[in-house]
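User: Last request for today: this protein with L263DTV3, please.
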Amino acid sequence: MGSHQDSTRDDSPHSLPTPATAAGRAGLDAFLADPGRAVVVLDFDGTLAPIVPDPDQARAHPDAVPALAALAPKVASVAVLTGRPAEVAVHHGGFAGVPGLDHLVVLGHYGAERWDAATGTLATPAPHPGVAAVRAELPGLLKRTGAAARGTWTEDKGHAVAVHTRRAPDPHAAFEALRAPLADLARRHGLIVEPGRMVLELRPPGMDKGAALRSYAHSLDAACVLFAGDDLGDLPAYAAVDTLRAEGTPGLLVCSASDEVTELRKRADVEVPGPAGVVALLAALAHRLA
Ligand SMILES: O=P(O)(O)OC[C@H]1O[C@H](O[C@H]2O[C@H](CO)[C@@H](O)[C@H](O)[C@H]2O)[C@H](O)[C@@H](O)[C@@H]1O
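Assistant: Here's the final one, the structure of the complex with L263DTV3:
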């Protein structure tokens, strides 16, 4: 698809892009016509937070919280839907205790966890026994396959374990070399492999961003859903918006574009240049609804 501002575009900081598709234009129209029933769902890493080599150092774009806080009171709900543990996203995003974000919801672990700003509470699932088994076997596997020596490292997320290759000398080669052995390890312990941007995550099955988005939108009786993402794990949410559209609920698919992952670019209604572009879009929506 593409970014898709037309030749008559308004280049002011608060201009809204023209979606490339008819479904996207209908989604944006519905959003602006009835914002009080619009639900905004946003991925975290690569969408609200720029990608950095160390996940512990990832932080929301500096304009993200102000844009979210300006938009949230004008729509039905704003939620962050992430592969991170919810409380990690809350911390790295700086989302707690922000005026305007009093009702923010963070759905962590692809929707298996939920943190509510209104109460400060976290609902988290029971641990899957396969994660402990994988945690125990993983160091040996990384050593045997030479992955440890190639600069991969492990992020223990509690309910999942992620093997990162971004800091390896050849991140793509390290990623590809690990695919099969990690798939075998995950399968033996009842887990699935979630591939992402230079990361292979071993996590429990049964929840994905599509199911989470659908359930969240239905719980709020959303009249329109905006979803923004950047990575393969966001594709189920894209599919969920497509399904909602087929059922009569308009939606807007936003791609936080990168050269690393191109799958979402082909399917988006609006493509923006990374987290800075996402945040500018959120600010423009808030400005339009002011
Ligand atoms: O669902 P998301 O919010 O997009 O989270 C997906 C994964 O994001 C994190 O990894 C990615 O971001 C890191 C920090 O910028 C980067 O170093 C890494 O290469 C990316 O894959 C996070 O560390 C994972 O646990 C998430 O599953």
